[in-house]
User: Fold these one by one.
Assistant:
Number 1:
Amino acid sequence: MSHHISTLPTLLSVAGALLVLTFLTVAVTWINIPEPFNVIVAITIAVVKATAVAMFFMNLYWDSKFNSVVFLLSILFLTIFVVITLLDTLFREGGLPVY
Amino acid sequence: MADSSQKTLRIREFPIDENPGHTYLNHEKGILSWLFTVDHKRIGLLYLGSVILFFFVGGMLALLLRTELLTPAQSIVDADTYNQIFTLHGAIMIFLFIIPSIPAALGNFFLPMMIGAKDVAFPRLNLASWWIYIFGALFALYSIITGAVDTGWTFYTPYSTQTGTSVVSMTLAVFILGFSSILTGLNFIVTLHKLRSPGLSWSKMPLFLWSLYATAVIQILATPILAITVLLLAMERILGIGIFDPSLGGDPVLFQHFFWFYSHPAVYIMIVPAFGIISELISTYSRKTIFGYWAIALSSLAIAFIGFLVWGHHMFVSGQSELSSVVFSFLTFFVGVPTGIKIFNWVATMYKGSIDLKTPMLYALAFLFLFTIGGLTGIMIGALSINVHLHDTYYIVAHFHYVMMGGTVIAMLGGLHHWWPKMTGKMYNEFWGRITCGVIFLSFNMTFLPQFIMGSQGMPRRYFNYVDQFQGLHQFSTIGSYLLGVGFVMMAVYLLWSLFKGPKAPSNPWKARSLEWMTSSPPTHHNFEYTPVILHGPYDHHKPMKEFRMGVAEESESPDVIEIDKDPA
Amino acid sequence: MANQSVATEKKSHLQHHFVDEDQQFESSKMGMWIFLVTEVLMFGGLFVAYIIYRAWHPDLFYEAAQELDVALGATNTVVLIASSLTIALAIRAVQLDKIKAAINYMAATILLAGTFMVIKYFEYMDKFGKGIYPGESYTYDGLEHEMAANFFSIYYMMTGLHGIHVVIGMVLIGWMIIKAKKGLVHSGYYTPVENTGLFWHLVDIIWIFLFPLLYLID
């Protein structure tokens, strides 16, 4: 495995894209997108940004694929945690637990 | 391996030094050379000593509990003390003994040896993990001195946010111990990926290592959730952040989700390494290739995965939604499939083998018997309707003691005896080994079988008093626990005796085929004086022993050198 | 290995149990990624709490988030992205043996991280001034919702844990500067810088999610 050295244009353009996306994620709040699409848009932009950082700043794109698998595993198990817990919290008989 | 280019390896057989003058034990002298060693074998022994110490402490607490339960009313301690003792018994046994027990002690010692490596990938991190463990243990000790904890080892809210006992320091202890566990798991994963010897493909890895791999995956994925859970619990007590505390608008059931998302997979951190040991023992003492290698290897990973989907079966009466109870109960049954696969493969391995009933094999057979009871009762209480009846009774107590003690502890004892000659270079007394195994097996059943009966009749767990009808069974159980204590004392005596007076162990007393037996007993500082090359599987008992002692030859002119194409898996 | 010739000239960092530098480098990096997994999952626990409470009380999150300053949050996002760029440039400089440039880039990263913390400090102080404390000390009465304190508890837990990581990252990068000054890292051996960079990028990624989830609820 040779060591990847990122080129200057790559790093700068990724940073540029991240700044544009940051502006975009703020800008979409100025137009009122109805629930739940505003959350979906915000998360989608965040995921794109995070993917860019992981692939080009953290070099996953050039790295051993196993490291990407490792990283994705954390997301997978987090998803399992969220989804199964929501099976409880969203479906309680008594409605919302307001005390 | 890192080098992917094809090259020719020159290998030859290396004889084993049966009387090594220079071993890891006398490589360096003095207490500091132990406390600050980066040798995985010495760290393994440090861990072994520590977990045995805490097993002793936890066991003494258990005997206190059993003594208190001799009579239906108060016998020796008052009710509050009783609550503190069972909490400490649980917390010590789980966080300080059973989670680090097999992986950090035996795993640390044998994982690098079994893959022909000189050490784990990060030796200093390995040492740090032991020190962090000790630091965590000191925190736990501090919490005991400053008022102990009486919440049960599960720290359920809202009681844990209200009780006057020192919950914060205990949760910090758990947080720190989690770090230690993560570092061990991280080390094992990287070591298994990067440091395997030439020829040691994934398909030639001993099954103990597959089980440690699965364990490490769980440690990495589950322990961080425990960390954030205990951190939030501490914040709940310090700041009153109201995430888990109902009086502040929080949700106590959410705490249970958080807690069991770690603690159910943690059950598999405890038992999966035991499965690995049993695979080694059954194959070695049946002199037979393991039946269903890939089935056993992959079922460990399957258990690791399914273990993350079933945590809610601890919460059937907590008030979680009916939907999730049904889903959790359904998913719980799937755990039985890979576990059953293992049991059947072990039994199939023994079929027509030439079984040698040495002490470790006796422990393996005891494991099969006890773990099957523990596992099948687990299937029963995984069923939603039965669970509601048996929830929080002695049936649960008996179930998890059959799994954790009848499973993990018995397997660990088997592994300890199996590897004792390798670790210490001394043979223990076979006669007393077998007798003690019998004593432990019988007294274990005496202690915990009655608890199944009491539980099914409605004896609740964690109760200080009980109705008179249970007194006979409780007393029977208590006597069993005393005998169990006697069994462990017998073991301590003959093992210590063997250290000082025992006969010298040969390099491979059990005629095993895996790599750790292909070096001297005790091993040298770097495990092997050569780089091992692996041509055969770890259970190929039908192949001659000398074919397992291959290593990279420095001198190519030697007449017995053979050349093979290196095939890095 | 791209820079084999350079590597052989410098002091070897190869530990005895590795076969070669590449194996050691790949092992360290894999170890770091596995550690990052534990970080993701630890923060993940807080995200789960966030998701569940937001699903229970969407109105609470809408109301309470209005108290947070989008401009400051966005500025901090830009600051962290810039710091991610500088640490990536620092690694590139080390790989090219431009140690002086690498030290400057790392110093810039610490400076940006410090800026982040200063902005965060003013945000916190502004909240404390209004009586918006985590947990039971909450006294602010500008919000109608009875569980307003719970939102800010989650806010403080998430940003607080993130802030601790920023500080840890600053310490690590400072340590790397010392290493670089001593000439301990170079194109043949830059594992610690690489791993520190990975850690720092993860801190950035977590903030990338925290920002829209906490500040941009409308």
Number 2:
Amino acid sequence: MQKHQERSIKHTHESEGGGGREQWGLPEEVTSVEEMIRLYREGKVSDDEFRRFRLQHGMYGSRLNQNYTMIRIKVPAGILYPEQLIRLAKLSEDFSIGSVHVTTRQNIQMHWVYLDDAPAVEKGLVEVGLTTREACGNTIRNVTCSPFAGVCMNEPFDVTPYAKALARFFLRNPMCQNLPRKFKFNFACCDEHSYARIADVGLVPVLKHGADGRSIRGFRVYIGGGLGPASYLAELLEEFTPEDMLLSTCMAVVRLFDRLGDREKMHRNRMRYLVHDMGFERFRELVLKERRAVEMTRSVLAKLYIREIKVDAPEMGQDAMVVELRPFNMPDGFDRWVKSNVMDQRQKGYAVVFIPLPAGDVTARQLRALAGICREFSHEGHVITTPTQGFALRWVMKSRLVELYRRLSEAGLANHGALSIASVVGCTSTTSCNLAITNAHRLAKEIRSRLIELGLDMDESLKDATIKLSGCPNSCGQHMIATIGFFGAAVRINNSLTPAYNMLLGGKVGKDSALGRVVARVPAKRIIDVILRLIDVYREERLEGESLASWIDRVLDGKGTGKIKGIDDLKPIIEEASRLPPPAEDPESYVDYGSDSRFIVRTARGECAA
Amino acid sequence: MLARRYPVLVEPEELLSMLNRGDHSDGGDNGVVLIDVRKEEDYMQGHIPRAVSLPLARVLESMDPRQLHMLFKRLGVDDSKHVIVYDDTFGALAARVAWALEYIGHEKVSLLSITYGRWSSLGYGIERGAGRVDQQHEGYTLADVSADHSILATYDYIQAILEGIKQLQQGKGTSTSTGKRVLLDVRERLNYLDHHIPYAVNIPWKAFTGEERILKPIEEIDALLSYRRISRDDEVIVYCGSVGTLSGLSYYALRLAGYSNVRLYARSLKEWRSLNLPVEGFKDAHYWDLSAE
């Protein structure tokens, strides 16, 4: 009985009413953005003060041009409703470049917005329930959540309500308005699809069966992970944190970081450094101790409001796996699309459809089309942004896939390869970011189209391999967790400064999360050759049924069985494919993608740390 | 320039009542001339009842006030008529035609607040076929046709402004009027970043347009301009990429919001570039690669 009371204080389970639509934005924040920009233009607030405010409200400086801002829209759990997609379309045409960018952390970014127009954008977002609040700056950033949550075959329960509740709890919460540095939460649906180990706090759902036969919900909690110039995988805090201790555990970690985090050294102030420097065991003890303090002292009002989600979808009697679908009226490309973009979901008769976007870019026209398609085909009535910079459309009746495919094709949204090696991730890099050295964004698009052209999205043996690129070491493109990852660099080759990438192999998320190892440095214009060469070598060397990702792991372990015993046997092959003739013979190779002039490195201060 | 006495926008219901009031037994038009500026074949397939056809291309043939005057006169436009213009291209073609009317001194001109497509989708009536053809006004002479140069900007006018700004920046010139002069480029953001007339600011034309109506509500247009510190005392010169259509629509957005000192650079960037006049752009980012187009 006492246990029951305790739980009711810390936790409220409600059934979802009114579609469970969260209103993240606040009208008064439009006014404050308007007022602050005015004061800044009148010279009444300092640059530093304004920057802090700006970042707190999702406005990040644009590459080498102070008149413009990037506006990041925080999308908790990646959930976007049709009206929101339509509004994003309109705002992108009115104030940005006519397309928006989906990020690896499930945010939406609008680039090259004139700073003074920000209040108009803010107003448009708030009207449809969206917010930019705490999308940048030293705050709790977007709470990300597996796009499979709620439909995953392996999940013990749907974590989406927990992700939304945690996002709601921390948004505008005074306890996290001025942290030593940004802080990231991630919810996984299961081990296999988990990104939990690259977050500051990663949460994997677990069901524990009590002696009385009742099951208790809880989480396996990982802390101290993150990607960047120095990346760490999060370590396990405890095997089972019951759901009624979820909030106090999260609060404890945030409080500890707030108190002990380094506020001086800009480049070493993420929590992962604190954990690493102190030693994980020591940090773990402190967290558990802090949690006891939180449990004893926190206000009764501090609780998570868990709203269970009920999807209004008819139950389906019989079912076929998507790969077995052979519709009578199968249009061209349908089979290929199903294989690389569609997955069965837990609920019989329904599928998850992935909509890959070239490096995360989607036009206003496509957003409008997607809104209509979502209304018509998704029984949950919203889309979800994915960590591979695309959209997932879930709760689609399998019997309607042909029709959906046609509709997506018309809108240019039926691109192949979402769940394949062709789903290449690239950060925005030199298209808009101050920190970028190379144009990883364009390169990601080029790699993608080349792989599709070669039909490599169809190759089952490449399916578990991923390619991710960042334009600098800061890892927004998540290159550290790619099978084949790249981050931008400038290298002097044949006495000429050349756009290039450090190449990493063997990164992965999921059950056996691992960070990639740097193995080579490759000129930008040789990246595609190197990737294709690597695939050739793999095809010669692989064991029966071995995937590219597994073969790479084996080589990194020094357990190769053919000509390539270990990574040192692979390096010369990569080097050979990377070679450039002198600039006079091949000037193009010394110029970056998307550029027609000599390569130069121009960067400015990053603002993540500001 | 005085505030407009005729509304910039006419609502569909207003148009219907204007067209339907009184009796038409004598073929009278109630003092209204409704102009459809789409292509002639589109007009033939369906248009708003009582509309006459004047494709935009005809208006663009000449900037000569006398020729323009003749063109409208043939449609029955005279000083007493209230002209209402519509299109199916966001209102931009209609705006350019309306502006041409103002340019030849006909201030009684309005835009239909919605496009033809929306008109028909809302179930307002349409009629097909040739409709009313040109009314030949024989014996009309081209007497004293003047043009309102206060709403036009030419390249040399803009050059003079640029010179003035330059001198002001160098501390040589003095500001003569109470307001400033603002060169407003209404092309899409990426085009503007790539190149634009020096000192021009950019508000993409779509920022002035509504989801369902050709222009946003006055308060929203006003907010946009005030965010950019453009005031009603300023002279605003709008231009776009080609023939003054998208900038024409933007011209009317400003007029709607009560900005009376607005000029259209009717030949826009197309002429500016053909004359090899200076442009500037931002070259430190690969922003084109962010576009999903």
Number 3:
Amino acid sequence: MTGVGTNRVAIIVDGRAVAADVEPRTLLADFLRDTCGAVAVHIGCGEGTCGACTVALDGIAVRSCLMLAVQADGGTIVTAAGLAALDGPPDAQNLTPLQLAFRAHHALQCGFCTPGILVATALFLRANPHPTRAEIVDHLSGHLCRCTGNVPIIAAIEAAAGATAP
Amino acid sequence: MKPAPFAYERPSDVAGVLALLGDGGPQKAILAGGQSLVLALARRARTPELVIDINRIAGLDAITVDGEGCLVIGATARLEEVRVHPAVRSGWPLIAEALGLVANPVVRRRGTLVGNLSNNGPGCEMAAVALVLDAEFVVERLGSDPSRVPSAIFLTLGGTVGFVTAVRFPPPSPGGFAFVELSRRPQHVCTLGAAVQLGPAGPVIALAGFATAIRCTAAEHASTPEALRAALAADLAGAGSADTLDEYRHDVAAVLVGDALAVARSRAA
């Protein structure tokens, strides 16, 4: 342990309360994976570009690689593993409507970027239930997918938005 | 990537920040949105001994129009909140237009305008906007009254002048405006960006994309495309950046400024 000590961090991750003493330099992404066991948080670039580590913190999408764990103290975090909290109830196979749309439209291949996209998209559709294609493209600019070329992802989000339309 | 060790404090008011900041210096870092700072920590480009988190100071995220008609944006107001704010969109639309080109929606919802300008990395669009709109920075230091530092000075200081509690934009200019940029891909740091605001005394022009943004006073008086090109060459003489794209930027500058002027004039009509 270094000379700067530790800070207490108490958060709720996908409905589970977690408290631990961490060094201030601990990144939220590492805290979620290593201390909380939230392995749905994928760390891609580690510098805020790829979007794979995106989680919901108190209802707002954040890059967990660009936050310190201590900053999230007292907060409520939802990862892709708890997507139902953002996206609605899952079906018998435990897939939420957004996940079903992604499957139907082949919107993932290797799946590494998918957790961040699902969390960010669930929040995006909450704020904007009927997005235009241009708004979807703008939203996805914060997420890099090397497999799909993004077209199936756009189609899945359009379908999910349609499915939730009144 | 792992930051070097540092201590962390989360004061609940401005006085607490000033007490912790003391005389400042590279050993102290103020954490607002963290979209630049946390990356710099992770890369160990910055290795402060103390990180001061200002995110839980009540009221510091305010976006207001003060009694003098100035737009005042607090230190923890997020880029996206500024971009969609009705007063910003109606009175200072150049800010909203340029913010649409900064990062992506998730990063904009976390990053702050004051932090973006304090960091002022190469290609910082908002630095050009701050110069064009003549913004000033409200800087507080322990034991002295808050001071207001003009953009032209602040942007050369590296953000180590004290605790920047707000950025302040003078009352709106009713003329046309435009921000036009060239970047390698959308929402990437710009290779070059031109900010133009038309006012009673003519256009005000600044370019982002060099080591810091540059106000282009000679170009503001050019009346023909040929004169504009020559004037920009004078404005940019000696302007350097971190990489080898300078010659290319000088060529592109005239095109972008010409385009931005045309858009601004079309909006003024």
